Amino acid sequence: MSKIHNLICYKKNNTQKSMSAAEETFVGAIDEGTSSTRFLVFSSKTHMPVASHQISTTNISLHEGWVEQDPEDILMKVKETVAVTCEKLKMMNILPSAIAAIGVTNQRETTLVWDKYTGKPLYNAIIWMDMRTQPIVDRFMNKRIPNCHTPDEQKRHLQFKCGLTMNPYFSVFKLIWLIENVPEVAQAIKEERCMFGTMDSWLIWNLTGGVNGGVHITDVTNASRTMLMNIHSLRWDKALISFFEIPSGLLFPEIRSCSEVFGRMTDGPLIETPISGCIGDQQAALMGQMCFLAGQAKCTFGTGCFLLYNTGRKPVISTHGLLTTVAYKMGKHTDPIYALEGSVAVAGSATKWLKDNLCIVDSYKSMEVMADSVEDTNGIHFVPAFSGLYAPYWKSDARGTITGLTMETTDAHLMRATLEGICFQTKDVMQSMQSDTGHPITALNVDGGMSTSDTFLKILTNVCCLPVVRPKMVETTALGAALAAGFAIGIWSMHSVKSNCDTFIQTLSEEEQKSEYVLWKKAIDRSIGWNKDDEENDYDDFAGF
């Protein structure tokens, strides 16, 4: 009898284990960035990646300041990363059919045009950092808007409509360049066969069928970076399209939420899998950091750094040099959530300068060790304004400046001053955000390459006088896209997902830090006015990027 009972229990337990294993599903994330294309697969239970594949992308630079990529090459690499990752899953005894949905996250502002009938690009993708459009920006800055009597009134009018200020980064100026300089584009618009979109639009259209019924959409976060979407209605704005002289006949993508089923994969190992998430990369990182509440903020530390602050359901139009953007919209019938965005031009590139130009350190890890070997900077401050200051100062005549040097200054002090300078710049942006919103930031969530350094984060928390939170799972951008896709089909809810983090708490008193901040402000003053060849207000037109 006991043997029969044990056999029944054994079978029952194994059945339960099989059912439990079967309940685990997976969500894929296409992460199409500036330097690489990746596909990651996340577990529905742990929110952790179980498999991935990455391929570097190639930039094309025909002239100084021009940055392009081949759209067909990017599409091919996306498909390859999906295929290779699915093979890795099979080796883990996970079938590709276990992937329930796919999300897409992408480099923002990058602009593409292609033929509706052939599916072929009409030109290379013009990448977000491309600067060829500055003359076009200058031209439209001089164009007057009815009832706007001063440049400041015109700037505020545009900013209220789209949340942005005129800058070569934004998609509209790349689109205008394509229309004016590529005859095939102008002709295709006349014949109503020119499809326009950002990188997400190109990928989703192709992956859902292309010329054979592909879905031509974008999401609110990517559309909010074109300068053609009304930040309030979340629709293409006729007045903005008219102001920027975009000809009729251009085929715009439909603006959708970040989280809904857009279409299904039409070929490859994930055929028939729904694509149900779409979100720009910086907003995806905000999602991946679980910054779902107003007042929460994240900062990505890479070459520069991008800080996004969740402002809730109402857009805050900045008066302190920041951008207003859509953070996310999780479903057709949900309210959009907005964010303020500010950037620091130089972060990780300052450490690269120490390594490659001054040759006083051989790696970021060595720099971290040296910076940690001293308690402070011995009174020096380093403002890494190599090409001017961005938010909140917007001074093109600023240059890199080191103040307070003495005979006792060592390379270790300079290392620490470099890290502190990046942190003080972050504090400057945070203070602008708090001034715009009237609410203090309670904690700063961080990601990006520099955030792997405990030394850097300890300095950051002391400089900013608030807790700094680093996720244990660093793939926050891809996770944000996966979450958007999973929310759409009910795998997760915004209330059920939790992040696992390390938190850094300040050790310096606020009084000590205030005195240091006063010295930082003096260093900022001394960094301004060095390049008198630049116009005094060069950066006023793109304050906030």
Quickly list its features.
545 residues; 16 helices; alpha/beta; nucleotide-binding; Nucleotidyltransferase, domain 5; disordered C terminus; seven-stranded mixed sheet; Carb_kinase_FGGY; six-stranded mixed sheet; glycerol kinase activity; glycerol metabolism; globular
Write the topology of this structure.
Blueprint: H1 2-23, E1 26-32, E2 36-43, E3 49-56, E4 68-69, H2 71-91, E5 99-106, E6 111-115, E7 125-126, H3 134-141, H4 151-162, H5 171-181, H6 183-190, E8 194-198, H7 199-207, E9 217-219, H8 220-223, H9 238-243, E10 254-256, E11 259-264, E12 274-280, H10 281-288, E13 297-301, E14 305-312, E15 323-328, E16 337-344, H11 348-356, H12 364-372, E17 381-383, E18 401-403, H13 411-437, E19 444-447, H14 454-464, E20 468-471, H15 476-488, E21 501-504, H16 510-527
Parallel strand pairs: 1-5, 5-12, 9-10, 13-19, 19-20
Antiparallel strand pairs: 1-2, 2-3, 4-7, 6-8, 11-12, 13-14, 14-16, 15-16, 17-18, 20-21
Helix pairs in contact: 10-15, 12-13, 13-14
Describe this structure in words.
The protein has 545 residues and is α/β, with parallel strands linked by helices. The protein has a domain at 323-527: 2-Layer Sandwich (Nucleotidyltransferase, domain 5), CATH 3.30.420.40. 36% of the residues lie in helices and 20% in strands. The chain has 16 helices and 21 strands. The protein has helices at 2-23, 71-91, 134-141, 151-162, 171-181, 183-190, 199-207, 220-223, 238-243, 281-288, 348-356, 364-372, 411-437, 454-464, 476-488, 510-527, and strands spanning 26-32, 36-43, 49-56, 68-69, 99-106, 111-115, 125-126, 194-198, 217-219, 254-256, 259-264, 274-280, 297-301, 305-312, 323-328, 337-344, 381-383, 401-403, 444-447, 468-471, 501-504. Helix 10 packs across helix 15, helix 12 (364-372) crosses helix 13 (411-437) and helix 13 (411-437) crosses helix 14. The longest helix is centred in the C-terminal third of the chain and has 27 residues, at 411-437. Pathway: Polyol metabolism; glycerol degradation via glycerol kinase pathway; sn-glycerol 3-phosphate from glycerol: step 1/1. It catalyses: glycerol + ATP = sn-glycerol 3-phosphate + ADP + H(+). GO terms for molecular function: ATP binding; glycerol kinase activity.
